[in-house]
Design a protein that fits this description.
Structural class: alpha+beta
CATH class of the largest domain: Alpha Beta
Strand content: 15-25%
Strand order of the largest sheet: 13-12-9-10-11-14-19-17
Radius of gyration: 22 Å
Largest sheet: 8 strands, antiparallel
């Protein structure tokens, strides 16, 4: 064992739902005990049932439970854990939480707090990645101070431009501006939304690409500057900048472009001293140019598609790296086999996207060759209204993309969740859409898909 390595006896999982269960499964395989924390709304959740120990940390609202750092640290100290795995969301990208863990002699399973802080500030991240050699879209080098400054930059870059929150993501604090007359209102509304969502109203501006692909590179790095990538994921199917469906590998990338993007991402991670699992997200233009967008310093919701095509266990690698082990393999050992697709199953109306909380009265989880379901729901489970609406991830793997689409359609048809509304019907429509089947689409896909389906509906009504 390399000097400085540590073996974990017990890990606390500072999260809920399917990702908490996902981490528990790997810990069980590694012989590591687990502690789950839960809000009063999640008392009957599966992550509570399957962990070795569990502690209630507060009332249903996230601010009183899963974002309650003193309560989580107290639970960790009471149960005498060695490490905390934050999952994704909640405190996963909180440098303050990572610092507090380390101050309490509890290993945070993720990168150093300084790196989380650097990548969490989108303006500073742009600057750091530019210095590391990654291409970055033309934009403001610092947060915007005045409307006049923004207007001068926009004219220099050329309209359209996009305004983004410096401290957040997920589409909040984001506005597309196509004309100088729209800029003032967009700046004010973006800053207000960013301040409400992230407690930081700083915004910046950059050139807007009309029809990009959203491509992300999965990174694994240890504490000894060994770093590799596990290929890419295509996350272009999204609604209001929220991902709906992901696949690996991307149908848009050639082997040469994959190599260029992967090599650039690895070198950038080495330059900033990154360790553990992370994802560098790029915008890919129609001419093959790619640009750094942001880095996620945590495990991603869509990590299973990478696991399916590489046979890697990303959570296991996270834990091994946090224990101080080396990766143990190089880029030459990477082998991508077949094609994987993930559909996010949300508790939402499939047409209006209004959240649908309530009790699940019937539930059938599909199986068969090449099918994986990451979920924490079961018959009788009550979907609470307090958290993100995603209740399951349906992932398939097959030899080809065409077969993966057919397998996903079959699995979606067999997936039954009754008592609430879900996005299963929407995903079935996407699987049957020739545009998706062709692999030739952009982040505009859902807008065009919705418009096309509305036209079909109107034609149907006219011919009735």
């Amino acid at each position: 064992m390399r000097q400085g390595t540590r073996k974990f006896r017990k890990i606390l999982i500072a999260n809920r739902g399917e990702i908490a269960c996902r981490i528990i499964w790997t810990c069980k395989e590694m012989g590591i005990k687990t502690v789950s924390v839960f809000s009063e709304a999640d008392r009957d959740s599966l992550h509570v049932r399957f962990a070795d120990e569990s502690i209630c940390i507060g009332a249903p609202p996230s601010a009183q439970s899963y974002l309650n750092i003193p309560a989580i640290i107290s639970a960790a100290e009471i149960t005498n854990v060695d490490a905390i795995h934050p999952g994704y969301g909640f405190l996963a990208e909180s440098p303050q939480f990572a610092e507090i863990c380390e101050a309490c002699n509890i290993k945070f399973i993720g990168p150093r707090a300084s790196v989380i802080r650097l990548m969490g500030d989108k303006v500073e991240a742009r600057r750091a990645m530019t210095e590391a050699g990654l291409p970055v879209l033309p934009g403001s080098p610092d947060p915007l101070e005045t409307e006049e400054e923004a207007l001068n930059l926009a004219r220099e870059i050329g309209f359209p431009v996009i305004i983004k929150a410096a401290a957040g993501g997920g589409g909040r604090g984001m506005r597309i501006v196509r004309d100088a007359s729209e800029l003032g209102v967009a700046l004010e509304s973006a800053s207000t939304e960013a301040a409400a969502a992230f407690r930081n109203g700083d915004i910046y501006i950059e050139r807007y690409i009309e029809r990009p692909r959203h491509i992300e590179i999965q990174i694994l790095a240890d504490e000894y500057n060994n770093c590799i990538h596990l290929g890419e994921r295509d996350c272009s199917i999204q609604r209001r900048h929220q991902k709906l469906l992901e696949e690996a590998p991307s149908p848009a990338l050639s082997p040469e472009l994959r190599e260029r993007m992967g090599t650039a991402a690895v070198e950038a991670c080495r330059r900033v001293g990154y360790s553990n699992a992370g994802t560098i997200e790029f915008l890919l233009d129609e001419d093959g140019s790619f640009y750094f967008m942001e880095m996620n310093t945590r495990i991603q919701v869509e990590h299973p598609v990478t696991e399916m095509v590489t046979l890697a266990d990303i959570v296991r690698n996270q834990i091994r790296v946090a224990e101080g082990e080396e990766l143990g393999y190089t880029q030459d050992d990477l082998l991508i086999v077949g094609h994987a697709i993930e559909c996010r199953i949300n508790a939402e109306d499939p047409e209006t996207f209004v959240p649908s909380a309530g009790r699940i009265t019937a539930c059938n989880i599909p199986g068969g060759p090449g099918v994986r379901v990451d979920t924490a729901v079961y018959p009788g489970y009550y979907v609470p209204p307090y958290y993100d609406s995603m209740i399951a991830k349906l992932i398939v793997h097959a030899r080809t993309r065409e077969l993966a689409i057919a397998r996903m359609r079959r699995a979606l048809e067999a997936m039954v969740i009754e008592g609430i509304k879900t996005t299963i019907p929407l995903h079935l429509k996407i699987m049957d859409d020739p545009k998706f089947q062709s692999g030739n689409f952009s982040t505009k896909y859902m807008e065009e898909f919705a418009a096309n389906n509305e036209q079909k509906k109107l034609l149907s009504l006219a011919n009735a």
